[in-house]
Amino acid sequence: TQLLEQSPQFLSIQEGENLTVYCNSSSVFSSLQWYRQEPGEGPVLLVTVVTGGEVKKLKRLTFQFGDARKDSSLHITAAQPGDTGLYLCAGVSNTGTASKLTFGTGTRLQVTL
Amino acid sequence: NAGVTQTPKFRVLKTGQSMTLLCAQDMNHEYMYWYRQDPGMGLRLIHYSVGEGTTAKGEVPDGYNVSRLKKQNFLLGLESAAPSQTSVYFCASSPIRDRVSTISYFGPGTRLTVT
Fold it and tell me: Would you tell me which residues 46-75 of chain A have a C-beta closer than 8 angstroms to some C-beta of chain B?
C-alpha cells in the first residue's frame, strides 16, 4: 500500500507569515497533485507537478516535486485568510486502465488576521 | 454545467440498514470514482469505473457495491451499514487524457452517520 505522509497536520499562523507543507512517500509516483478543500466541499485541484525537481508557481503558492518523484512541498508566501483550508497532496499512479490517486493525510491551515 | 453532484448531502442510518448514494456528472467524463474521507486519513478509494458498465475495486471496497449503468451516473450502495462506515463520501470524475496529468473533479460530498 502506498502511503503519503503530510506534515504538519495542523498549522495556525497570522496573516503575512510564510509557511511550508511537506508531502513524503517511500513510493515513486508518475506525478503529484495538490488540492485544497474547504469545509463542506470537495477537494479542488491546485496544481500537478510531473517532472522530478519541477517547480511551479501559482501566485503566492510555490510547489516543488522532489528529484526522485517521491516527495513534494507547498510553500505559501505572505499567507492570507483566504488561504485557510485543508491541503491535500495526491500521488498519481498509472494502472492498466485508469490513473489512481493516493491521497496524503492532509494539512489543515488556518490563517488569522 | 453543474459539474459533479451528489445526493443526498446528509444521511443517518441505523446499523444494518441499506442505502444508495447517487453521483451524477454532466461533463461526459469516462472515469468515475468513489472515495471516503476520514479524519487524519486523507481520501481513500472505494471503487472506480473506467466506463459505462464497468467497475473495479479500490483500496477499501469491503461492505460497498457500485454500479455504472449510465455514463453520467455512478451509484454507491451499502447493503448492511456498519458504524465503521460513518464517513464523508466523495464522488469524482475525470476525462480520458494524458494519465500523468489527469484532473479529477469532486462533488460536494455526502456525510453519512451510522448509529
Answer: 48, 50
Q: Which tens digits make up the pLDDT trace of B38-61? A: 987 889 999 999 899 999 999 999
Cα-Cα end-to-end distance for chain B:
36
H runs (alpha helix) in B1-115: none
Least Cα distance to A104 among A18, A53, A43 occurs for: A43
| CB-based contact B115:B16 (threshold 8 Å) | no
Note whether A97 contacts B: Cβ–Cβ < 8 A: yes
Looking at the complex, report in whole angstroms how far the Cα of residue B72 sits from the nearest Cα belonging to chain A. Answer: 17
For residues A68-84, give the mean pLDDT.
Answer: 95
Q: Which of A4, A48, A98 sits opposite B31 (nearest CB)?
A: A98
Distance CA B9, CA B108 (A): 8
Exposure string (b/e) for A20-53, b if CB count within 10 Å is 16 or more? ebbbbbeeebbbbbbbbbeeeebbebbbbbbeee
Instruction: Tell me, yes or no, if B61 comes closer than 8 A to chain A by beta carbon.
Output: no
